[in-house]
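2024-03-11 09:14:02 DEBUG pipeline.ingest accepted 1 chain
2024-03-11 09:14:02 DEBUG pipeline.ingest length=98
2024-03-11 09:14:03 DEBUG pipeline.predict start
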Amino acid sequence: MLKKIGVVLLLLVIFTLMLVFTSTNPGFVIIDLFFMEVSPSIPLAFSVTFVSGWVFGLLCTTVFILRLIHERRQLRRKLSYTESELANLRSLPLTDAD
């Protein structure tokens, strides 16, 4: 619960800072993209950069989580196999070593 409140507050602070930034910087910036030049407003350029960085981070996190899920699935299979092998060994009768 407290974590959700912290995340919401952080997002509100970021949103507020972006609003303040956009209202105080009405200028334009020229961006050269090798094959063309664009001239967006400064707030738009920063907003696009922020969103694209957020999406890239989300994609990287998704790849990491998918790897963890795959590893967890493999470990569960190994655990199941090991538990069944242990159960089979426990069911074997004991023999005296004479």
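2024-03-11 09:14:41 DEBUG pipeline.report The beta strands are 31-32, 37-38.
2024-03-11 09:14:41 DEBUG pipeline.predict end
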